[in-house]
Amino acid sequence: MGTESSESAGALARLATDRVDARFKGLPPDADGLTVGELTAERRNLFTGGFTTPVLTLSAEHLTHNLELMETYAARHGLSFAPHGKTSMAPQLFRRQIDHGAWGITLAVPHQVRVARQFGIQRVFLANELVDPSALRWIASELAADPDFRFICYVDSVRGVELMDAALAGAVTRPLDVVVELGAGEGARTGARTEAECAAVADAVAAVPTLRLVGVAGYEGEVPQANPERVRTWLRRLVALAADFDKAGRFAAPSVEEIVVSAGGSAWFDAVADVFVEIPELSLPVLKLLRSGAYVSHDDGHYRHVTPFNRVPEEGALEPAFRLWTQVVSRPSPEQAFANAGKRDAAYDLDLPFAQVVRREGTEERPATGISVTGLSDQHAWLHTDPGADLEVGDWLGLGLSHPCTSFDKWQLIPLAEADGTVVDYIRTFF
């Protein structure tokens, strides 16, 4: 852990030396040439410090709340936590997640792993089968150079095992750890569809020296027509697969110290917590690895509706941390207005943004009553205004967003603002 902390701290510190320029949307024009660290030290106010619209912000208070809530939740349910880093691709947030108890970081593709390694992340769970030869050889070099680096990835096909073995032959100094992915059903995403297919993949792993089977995994969010009963049924299949593999001696490879059983997106982690309690005693300790990622920012749309905390309110509640500030630039009729943020700035793949608050110079912030977003162009939000809605050209409109994964990726440097508008940090993303 000490190596991870020192490497991460050094790389994160270097982020503060980057110069502010036109790459970064929404930042004050007069900040050009300052380092990010110098701008942070100025503690500018979002509303009076020269920021231009559109500008995406994260709430400092809500972000901290969400980190603490999921740390507590995982500990309460005996789960290890490897939040999915593809959500934010923000090493500063990776660091805070690990500081709040995360076992490591889940990722999806080789580029994301390279970012994580650049910032000292020592435990990576790749929720994908990795068959690219160049990427596999790079992973092998990382494992050879750093005995403390732990890397786990999916396998879901015999062909995948063959390709991985061919790429790693002669390149790997210690076997690459893999988990067999159980698919969520016909029509779902990746993963072997049946237990027999999973066993065939496990046999293929056992037959090659470059790979080592350490567990089973999958993603319950892909269960067709997901509901609590269907999700729990699939999770019990995953648990049974781990037990059957263990009984058959499939986790007996040298130096395997624990059996990994992993699932858990951001919509059904309560079901994961419930079913993983049922994991029987196995021949080795079990690493129950939860992978939810959207919690870090939460949202005002999709995840506000599907979060498990709606089903278990006694466990707490996540708080939406995003707010996109945009400015009204046209008011062509009493029923219509346009603001200067669009598809380049806001997630729109699940839900349109939500009008939340209005700020007008010289007045108090107020709810955006009677104002709704009806569509997005590349650089405009289409607004419908009810009769009597108080909205003028020049007003700042604060929008809530839906789907964190397609919000972070539109912004390279995101102000982290306290409730009074003081910007206390800038979050760098790497997409």
Write the layout of secondary structure elements.
Blueprint: H1 2-15, H2 36-42, E1 55-59, H3 60-76, E2 80-81, H4 91-99, E3 105-107, H5 110-118, E4 123-129, H6 133-145, E5 150-155, H7 158-168, E6 176-181, H8 195-206, E7 211-217, H9 228-247, E8 259-263, H10 269-276, E9 286-290, H11 302-306, E10 322-333, E11 336-339, E12 354-359, E13 366-367, E14 371-376, E15 381-385, E16 396-400, E17 413-417, E18 423-428
Parallel strand pairs: 1-17, 2-9, 3-4, 4-5, 5-6, 6-7, 7-8, 8-9
Antiparallel strand pairs: 1-10, 10-11, 10-16, 11-15, 12-13, 12-16, 14-15, 17-18
Describe this structure as you would to a colleague.
The protein is α/β, with parallel strands linked by helices and 431 residues long. The chain has eleven helices and 18 strands. It has helices at 2-15, 36-42, 60-76, 91-99, 110-118, 133-145, 158-168, 195-206, 228-247, 269-276, 302-306, and strands at 55-59, 80-81, 105-107, 123-129, 150-155, 176-181, 211-217, 259-263, 286-290, 322-333, 336-339, 354-359, 366-367, 371-376, 381-385, 396-400, 413-417, 423-428. Strands 1, 10, 11, 12, 13, 14, 15, 16, 17 and 18 form a ten-stranded mixed β-sheet that branches. It has an eight-stranded parallel β-sheet with strand order 2-9-8-7-6-5-4-3. The chain is globular, with a radius of gyration of 23 Å. The relative contact order is 0.15. The mean pLDDT is 96.
